[in-house]
Amino acid sequence: MTQDEVVAEFRAAGALLEGHFILSSGLRSPVFLQKMFIFQDPVRTERLCKALAQKAEAAFGRIDYVVSPAVGGIVPGYETARHLGAKAVFVEREGGTFQLRRGFTIPPEARVLMVEDIVTTGLSSRECLASIAEHTTNVVGAACLIDRSNGKADLGVTLVSLARLDIPAYPADALPPELAALPPIKPGSRGIQGAKA
């Protein structure tokens, strides 16, 4: 699947929104990728995650476990794991930090891939990877549907994505005038379950 095809999937699903958005990182952007509009369509989700699984397998080889951060990473993590023939587990916030809960375990010898939905600064991904590191040192890499940092986010592991976009993001005190003139909307999920805003 090409980058243009991935972006076309987001546009067709109404998942590429324009306005003034407060991202989960706290940065502001004129573009928001509402991946839940993708994930409400199982056929579209399967198409994208199958392509992501193929790209991840080509980059990293066999994957035994896919670990994703809740909430946004659960659906793509599960669906990517399905196409990899891997187990799918997720970490969720407890006391503000990601934890492996619900009785999930990761065997120390398992080859682990961290799967995200969208990467902007990489903060959630790094927090997820830190949580995984408490259970195994065998993380082979990370994968996401869209890397909106255009390859600039440093996760500490190799990141593969279906698309790399260069979408601007600004600190709240350094907005361009056209963005500052619009009312901000905070559509993300980071504030859920006691997360740090």
Could you characterize what this model shows?
The protein is α/β, with parallel strands linked by helices and 197 residues long. It has six helices and eight strands. The strands form two sheets. A six-stranded mixed β-sheet has the order 5-4-3-6-7-8, sandwiched between helices. The radius of gyration is 16 Å and the shape is globular. The chain starts with a helix and ends in a 17-residue tail after the last helix. 40% of the residues are buried.
Any descriptors?
Orotate_PRibTrfase_bac, six-stranded mixed sheet, single chain, magnesium, two-stranded antiparallel sheet, 197 residues, 8 strands, glycosyltransferase, alpha/beta
Q: Layout of SSEs?
A:
Elements: H1 3-12, E1 16-22, E2 28-33, H2 36-39, H3 42-60, E3 65-69, H4 74-84, E4 87-94, E5 97-100, E6 112-119, H5 123-133, E7 139-147, E8 159-164, H6 177-180
Parallel strand pairs: 3-4, 3-6, 6-7, 7-8
Antiparallel strand pairs: 1-2, 4-5
Helix pairs in contact: 3-4
